[in-house]
Each structure stands twice: as structure tokens, then as C-alpha cells.
Design brief:
Blueprint (H helix, E strand, L loop, with lengths): L1 E5 L15 E3 L15 E4 L2 H5 L7 E2 H5 L4 E5 L6 E5 L2 E5 L5 E3 L5 E2 L1 E5 L5 E5 L5 H9 L8 E16 L11 H6 L3 E16 L10 E8 L5 E8 L3 E8 L2 E4 L4 H5 L18
Parallel strand pairs: 2-17, 3-17
Antiparallel strand pairs: 1-13, 3-10, 4-9, 5-6, 5-10, 6-7, 7-8, 11-16, 12-13, 12-15, 12-16, 13-14, 14-15
């Protein structure tokens, strides 16, 4: 496996239209007869990050109780979070991944109790957009969420992680431009993530939102670009999302501003 450091700005989160969904400020008590429906359990919203609310109260211990795969970011943007097989990894700004302590907290995390329904082998992928296009033809409902897990050898994965903000009021888009990029080549590992349709873009990160973790769990990050051939993706459709709001003091007192989405690939990768 070859590891290469890069430096390149990108856009990560895109808000759009808020949709009707189950939302709460804590643990959900389902009384609607849908307890058995596969669900994304999410803490926080993309819009809260874009409004510079970088702190939450959910812990890594609680994340592990809500699912087996997941993607998010830790408090004060101090590292991406990737959950693989029920283990929460914190990824430092340089891509170094370590097991997150149980008390680690986050402002944003999406968790799924992953139970794949279908598998598809994806051939000859030359970019993140190419991967998105080839996965989307397998969707049987264009307005649903989808969760993914892929284990194999990846020709090239370009990633970014999060570095802690020094100023809690730092503009989120300016912050994104300062992230360090790095890449692995011919790397064995696991890619996990979620697809969110565009109309739910204030609820969950729109498009494909993927994180990658090497097989030895030494390197990880938010996927910006990818090349692969002959990698099998497990897919689960999800038609429900439960969102817990980050009821920290700043969220209680700061009105959320609707922020226009940037152009480009959206959740990650290159257009």
C-alpha cells in the first residue's frame, strides 16, 4: 500500500430543503408502529455545522449502541469519525486512525444497524462521480436513503480529515478550504457510507457520503475521490431517519440560518 500526502480544497456539506421526518432532542420512543423499520439514527444536522455549532453531547459509547457502521465528525471538528463493525475510529488531520475513547463526543454522526439486502460488484471506477453514477443505477427507490459497505482492494482513495477549530465561530466553508488531503494506493480496506437524496439535504449530507478505513485500521478519512475495479458493495435501503438535535447551549440560543449549497460534487469527491 502506498500513502501519499496531498493538499486540495473541497466542499463537504450541502444544505437544501428540510423534509418532514421524525426528530427529537433525545432517545426516540417509537409509537407509530414502525419500530422494525430499518432506520438511520442521526445526531445533529449538516446545517448545525454550517452554522458553526461544532459541539454535541453524544458519546462514542452511545454511538456503538445505535449501529454497526457510521460516519461523522468529533467535537470542535477534531477528527473525522468512522464506524466499522461496531468500532468507532477517530481520524486525525493527517489521516491517522485510532479507536475513539468511549467518552469522545460529537456534534454530528449517522449510524446504521447495517443489514445489507443486495450486493453489486462495481467495475472500472475512475472517479467519485463515476462511483456515484454506477451505484445509483441499483437504487429501486430514488427518494430513499441507502447505506453501503464495501470491503476489498482499492486502486486509489483520496481522503480528508478534520482538524480542530481554534475559533468556534470560524466560517465552515473557509475551514473546509484549509483541510489537508492525503491518499492511499492499492489499499485493502473498508468503505462505509450513506446516500441521501438531494431533497433531504438539510437533514443529512446529500449524495454519497463515504468514509474509508484501511484493513489495518491505521489510516482513514472522508472520501474525496476514488478509483477501483471489481469491488463488491453491500447495499441496504432505508426509508426512515431519526434525528436527535444537539441541545447544547449554542444550539438552544442561536437561530439557524439557511445557507445556500455550494456547487460541485457535494458530499465528497471530485466532479
Amino acid at each position: 500500500m502506498k500513502f501519499t500526502s496531498l493538499y486540495h480544497p473541497s466542499n463537504l456539506l450541502v444544505p437544501a430543503v428540510l423534509a418532514s421526518l421524525a426528530m427529537s432532542t433525545g432517545v426516540q420512543a417509537h409509537e407509530d408502529g414502525h419500530d422494525e423499520t430499518p432506520v438511520i439514527k442521526q445526531y445533529g444536522l449538516p446545517l448545525t455545522l454550517m452554522n458553526t455549532i461544532y459541539e454535541g453531547t453524544i458519546t462514542a459509547r452511545e454511538m456503538k449502541q445505535q449501529g454497526t457502521i457510521g460516519v461523522g465528525v468529533s467535537n470542535h471538528l477534531n477528527g473525522e469519525l468512522t464506524v466499522v463493525d461496531g468500532v468507532v475510529y477517530q481520524v486525525a488531520a493527517d489521516g491517522t486512525a485510532t479507536v475513539a475513547p468511549d467518552e469522545l463526543q460529537a456534534p454530528y454522526i449517522s449510524m446504521i444497524d447495517f443489514q445489507p439486502e443486495t450486493t453489486v460488484t462495481i467495475e472500472d471506477v475512475s472517479s467519485f462521480k463515476d462511483l456515484s453514477d454506477k451505484l445509483s443505477v441499483n437504487f429501486d427507490a430514488v427518494n430513499s436513503f441507502y447505506a453501503f459497505r464495501a470491503i476489498g482492494t482499492f486502486d486509489y482513495v483520496k481522503m480528508a480529515s478534520a482538524h480542530a477549530v481554534e475559533d468556534e465561530d470560524a466560517d465552515f466553508f473557509t475551514y473546509l478550504d484549509s483541510r489537508q488531503m492525503y491518499a492511499v494506493e492499492q489499499a485493502e480496506g473498508t468503505m462505509v457510507g450513506i446516500f441521501t437524496p438531494q431533497y433531504l439535504a438539510t437533514v443529512s449530507i446529500p449524495g454519497l457520503h463515504f468514509h474509508f478505513q484501511t484493513a489495518d485500521n491505521a489510516i482513514g478519512g472522508h472520501v474525496e475521490d476514488v478509483r477501483l475495479n471489481g469491488v463488491t458493495f453491500e447495499i441496504q435501503r432505508l426509508d426512515r431517519i431519526d434525528v436527535s438535535l444537539p441541545m447544547v447551549e449554542e444550539f438552544r440560543t442561536k437561530p439557524m440560518q439557511m445557507i445556500a449549497p455550494p456547487s460541485g460534487a457535494g458530499a465528497g469527491g471530485t466532479e
